[in-house]
């Protein structure tokens, strides 16, 4: 919902980080006076609906609100708990007369203080489902906020200092016939900022400027968003999923992404584009590919995932991707074909006028045909291409080879056959396949369409078929999918993975207008056990924003406080032989109210990530078994970045998870040795990390 009042730099003011930003705009400063106390600005009547009804609220219109609108029972329609309600009761617009009912509810009039907050849940629909604040004297809608497509409630904070002392009221608007919105625990005054001694992270779309931003201004806003990773790639606004088109071309690293600039939701897919001189610092470039039917917002036809290749004849940068067509709107079209675009400057791309270059799916592709990845086959000295597919019962990867002369070898393809097929246990459709040689082995990885796990297989290749020798998860955490590989000019096998997944409703950053994060650049290698290993590229050290703090050899009994930060690199080496504890725990994003735990068990060599007490993100536990190191040293390299954690173990194991802390105090890093015994660390190194944005 567009506000009719000038934007105030609310987020910066609430955090009191700066008075003037690099783009020259002035940040507001949150008043810290008695006027924000709750007894002077009590807010609306019945702010948490603990009366069990709509007392103090007025139904303006519609059938969505009535005696059944307040409940103690959370729906599981949009995901599972915890649901985060305060007290027992809360409001939801689908309880009185179902999802199809519409209507508007308004609160009693109250005097605005300098700040207010509330809990919101339900569907994302800014135009039809929102909580708003209205100026009583003229009906101006000052602020509005939609939800995240999750039943779990999330805290929104608004800087209302420009209207302090004026009469306002809240509205709950539901004009959607397919969704709902939930509201709880409206707070005004200083009480709006805290739970006891814990200060809320400042979330809400009204805190995110979107107009007239230079690149410098946009980058400066990255730093003040408490959910936004600082040294990982994210969209400023909108949505990203699969990394695509990874390549080093013209001496620079290029990262493309599946992208929806319109909303923090999947939609018609564009390709966003960024470049880097060092593989870790990024600069946004113009959008590379645009969907074919942008004028119809319901048409999800778009440019799906693909790859980038340097044309050996012309030197141009060529993209090879899926053209996906929504057959509801185009019933005679082929739903998925392979197309191409080319650029001579690495910025502007022209669609090939002979598209599609693969006009139909081959046999055994009933479940889909997408995500082409081109690779050079050194055994045959030609270009080949894998495409994700499935026959309706098992996932498979289709193989093509180039047939054209040098100048057109990437535009003419001949079907070879099924490169590799599953047994159905890993889904009926395999997405985002990558196939490439490392050392004397070949590696295949792909995404499982149901369950959305990323798998790798290591084995041999005879030019037409792949024989698997080793199978494993690409990443043992919950938030890794659609990984893409490439080889850089130094000959390194590198990859980026999407640090999110499809099987969760937990997207708290949607309330700040964006969703999706890409991993740090990773280097791939064959592990000692024959599996696929990974580690951060060496250039990650270039992201350090200050000197590292080394604690040296440290014997940990009980709990040891390592530092206080949410943007850092933690490296630790454990002397397994000298330690006698049954386990040790590293807590990240920790406070007395919440934390994420990383637990190593010495007996069974298991490493477990536990996010059940970790704020707004996906709650669960995920475990990996770590190989016994030959030197009895367990090495951990942990990248901590606002709302993401990437864990790399010395044996090549990786575990990735998104975490969204509720509170600003949740930045402690501490290590606990269990059972009253000791854990011996050869060293513990904590390095502050800066921004990835150039």
Automatic annotation (TrEMBL):
Residues annotated as domain Glycosyl hydrolase family 32 N-terminal: 232-536
EC number from the UniProt entry: 3.2.1.26
Residues of the signal peptide: 1-27
Pfam families: Glyco_hydro_32C, Glyco_hydro_32N
SMART domains: Glyco_32
GO BP term (any one): carbohydrate metabolic process
Source superkingdom: Eukaryota
MF terms (GO), sorted A to Z: beta-fructofuranosidase activity
Any coiled-coil regions, as ranges: none
InterPro entries hit by this protein: ConA-like_dom_sf, EF_Hand_1_Ca_BS, GH32_Enzymes, Glyco_hydro_32, Glyco_hydro_32_C, Glyco_hydro_32_N, Glyco_hydro_beta-prop_sf
Keyword terms, alphabetized: Glycosidase, Hydrolase, Signal
Domain spans labelled Glycosyl hydrolase family 32 C-terminal: 565-684
Gene3D superfamilies noted in UniProt: Exo-inulinase, domain 1, Galactose-binding domain-like, Glycosyl hydrolase domain, family 43
PANTHER family in alphabetical order: BETA-FRUCTOSIDASE (PTHR43101:SF1)
Family: Belongs to the glycosyl hydrolase 32 family.
Name of the protein described by the UniProt record: beta-fructofuranosidase
Source species: Neurospora tetrasperma (strain FGSC 2508 / ATCC MYA-4615 / P0657)
Lineage of origin: Eukaryota, Fungi, Dikarya, Ascomycota, Pezizomycotina
């Amino acid at each position: 919902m567009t506000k009719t009042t000038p934007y105030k730099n609310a987020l910066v003011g609430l955090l009191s980080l700066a008075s003037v930003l690099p783009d020259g705009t002035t940040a507001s400063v949150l008043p810290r006076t008695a006027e924000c106390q709750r007894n002077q600005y009590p807010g609306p009547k019945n702010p948490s609906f603990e009366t069990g009804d709509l007392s103090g609220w007025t139904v303006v219109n519609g059938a969505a609100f009535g005696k059944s609108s307040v409940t103690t029972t959370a729906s599981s329609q949009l995901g599972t708990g915890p649901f985060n309600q305060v007290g027992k009761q809360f409001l939801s617009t689908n309880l009185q007369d179902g999802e199809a009912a519409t209507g508007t509810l308004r609160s009693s009039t109250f005097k605005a203080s300098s700040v207010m907050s509330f809990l919101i849940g339900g569907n994302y629909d800014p135009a039809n489902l929102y909580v708003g604040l209205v100026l009583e004297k003229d009906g101006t809608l000052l602020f509005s906020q939609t939800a995240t497509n999750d039943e779990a409630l999330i805290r929104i904070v608004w800087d209302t200092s420009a209207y302090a002392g004026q009469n306002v009221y809240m509205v709950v608007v539901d004009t959607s016939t397919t969704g709902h919105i939930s509201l709880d625990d409206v707070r005004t005054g200083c009480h709006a900022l805290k739970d006891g001694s814990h200060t809320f992270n400042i979330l809400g779309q009204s805190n995110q400027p979107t107009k007239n931003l230079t690149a410098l201004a946009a980058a400066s806003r990255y730093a003040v968003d408490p959910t936004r990773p600082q040294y990982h790639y994210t969209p400023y606004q909108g949505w990203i999923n699969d990394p695509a088109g990874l390549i080093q071309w013209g001496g620079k690293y290029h990262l493309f992404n599946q992208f929806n600039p319109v909303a923090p939701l999947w939609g018609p897919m564009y390709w966003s584009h960024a470049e880097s001189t060092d593989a870790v610092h990024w600069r946004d470039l113009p959008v590379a590919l645009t969907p074919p039917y942008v004028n119809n917002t319901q048409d999800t036809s778009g440019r799906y995932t693909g790859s980038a290749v340097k044309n050996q004849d012309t030197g141009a940068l060529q993209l090879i991707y899926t053209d996906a067509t929504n057959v509801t709107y185009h019933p005679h079209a082929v739903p998925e074909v392979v197309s191409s675009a080319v650029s001579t400057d690495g910025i502007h791309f022209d669609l090939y006028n002979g598209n599609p270059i693969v006009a139909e799916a081959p046999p055994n592709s009933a479940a889909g045909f997408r995500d082409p990845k081109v690779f050079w086959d050194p055994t045959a000295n030609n270009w080949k291409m894998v495409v994700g597919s499935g026959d309706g019962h098992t996932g498979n990867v289709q193989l093509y080879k180039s047939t054209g002369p040098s100048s057109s070898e990437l535009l003419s393809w001949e079907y070879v056959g099924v490169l590799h097929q599953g047994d159905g246990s890993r889904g009926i459709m395999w997405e985002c396949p990558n196939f490439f040689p490392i050392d004397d082995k070949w590696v295949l990885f792909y995404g499982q369409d149901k369950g959305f796990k990323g798998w790798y297989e290591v084995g041999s290749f005879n030019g037409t078929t792949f024989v698997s020798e080793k199978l494993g998860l690409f990443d043992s955490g919950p938030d890794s999918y659609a990984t893409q590989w490439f080889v850089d000019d130094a000959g390194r096998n590198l990859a980026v993975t999407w640090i999110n997944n499809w099987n969760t409703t937990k997207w708290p950053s949607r309330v700040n207008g964006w969703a999706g994060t890409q991993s740090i650049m990773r280097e791939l290698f064959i592990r000692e056990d024959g599996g696929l290993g990974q580690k951060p590229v060496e250039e990650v050290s270039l992201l350090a924003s200050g000197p590292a703090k080394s604690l040296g050899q440290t014997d940990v009994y009980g709990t040891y406080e390592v530092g206080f930060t949410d943007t850092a690199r933690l490296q630790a080496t454990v002397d397994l032989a000298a330690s006698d504890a049954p386990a040790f725990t590293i807590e990240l994003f920790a406070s007395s109210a919440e934390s994420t735990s990383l637990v190593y068990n010495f007996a069974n060599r298991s490493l477990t990530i536990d996010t059940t007490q970790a704020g707004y993100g996906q709650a669960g536990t995920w475990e990996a078994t770590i190989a016994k190191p030959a030197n009895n040293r367990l090495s951990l390299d942990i990248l901590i970045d606002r709302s993401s954690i990437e864990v790399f173990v010395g044996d090549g194991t990786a575990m990735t998870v998104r975490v969204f802390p509720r509170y600003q105090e949740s930045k402690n890093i501490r290590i606990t040795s269990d059972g009253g015994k000791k854990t011996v660390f050869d060293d513990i190194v904590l390095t502050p990390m800066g921004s990835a944005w150039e």
